[in-house]
Amino acid sequence: MTKTTAYAPQCVSLGPGDPNLLTLGALRILQEADVIFCPATIRESSVTSRARDIILAVGIEESKLRLFHVPMSKDRSKAMVAYAEVAGEIFQAVQKGLRTAFVAEGDSCFYSSVHYISDILLEHHGLSATHTAGVPAFIACGSLAGIHIVKQDEPLSVYPSNVTPEQIEKDLSEHKTVVLMKVSQQQQTLQALLQNRPDLSWHYFENVGVSGKEYYTTDKSIIAEREVPYFSILILRNE
Ligand code: SAH
């Protein structure tokens, strides 16, 4: 009887959108994988996946992709079911001796929901996934704007949600740079700061690295009026 080699599932970071920001290590894993599990928004009439777009842009065959739908809702229970299903499929593929990869935008270990898949793989299937590092979106923001996000001994605060204007004011008074992620979910804080702190250095970004959708402005009046999408970041500096 031949023994099947079990390859550990590989969690691959894709960077924020620009295929040039995929690492050589990530590219090699994608090329060598037999099947790549990739998050998507699957609707009756359309399928969108920024992750798929990056993967196809670097020449990976579409036939290797296995798109899975991730329900977008504050109630994470439906998404958890989707992650459990994907983890089960990865497990089955590993059992068959296939090389499996599953992907995340930006860096897979930085505020990425892909950790649910890694956790389920480990806890329910006894599989420990490896991770490759990637460029997080906020790092790509710095180069797009040509700014030093932090200089010398300056500290940095990164907030994914639920931060108060007072907390941000405190950070800025301590000369921290503030990175606000998921800006669309922090509208009240954003509007309060726009009112109270027009003196700050404002850098607002959308869809960094995504061809045709990337946007950057320092204009506070535009930021105040703008319909903020999910893929947006605000960087505030006190200078
Ligand atoms: N793992 C990702 C973060 C995912 S959390 C990383 O390493 O960057 C999702 C949040 O990340 C979004 O709400 C947005 O604030 C930010 N984000 C991710 N990709 C982005 C992009 N291309 N442009 C702007 N913001 C992005």
From TrEMBL:
- Tetrapyrrole methylase domain residues are 11-217
Has the keyword S-adenosyl-L-methionine been applied to this entry? Answer: yes
Q: What InterPro entries does the record point to?
A: 4pyrrol_Mease (IPR000878), 4pyrrol_Methylase_sf (IPR035996), 4pyrrole_Mease_sub1 (IPR014777), 4pyrrole_Mease_sub2 (IPR014776), CobI/CbiL (IPR012382), CobI/CbiL/CobIJ_dom (IPR006364), Uropor_MeTrfase_CS (IPR003043)
Q: What class of enzyme is it?
A: transferase
Question: Which residue windows are transmembrane per the record?
Answer: none
* Keyword Chloroplast (UniProt): no
Q: Which PROSITE patterns match?
A: SUMT_1
Supply the EC number(s). 2.1.1.151
Q: Which reaction does it catalyse?
A: Co-precorrin-2 + S-adenosyl-L-methionine = Co-precorrin-3 + S-adenosyl-L-homocysteine + H(+)
Q: In which pathway does it act?
A: Cofactor biosynthesis; adenosylcobalamin biosynthesis
Keywords per UniProt: Cobalamin biosynthesis, Methyltransferase, S-adenosyl-L-methionine, Transferase
Subunit info here reads: Homodimer.
Q: Which NCBIfam families match?
A: cobI_cbiL (TIGR01467)
Identify its protein family: Belongs to the precorrin methyltransferase family.
The name under which this protein is listed is Cobalt-precorrin-2 C(20)-methyltransferase
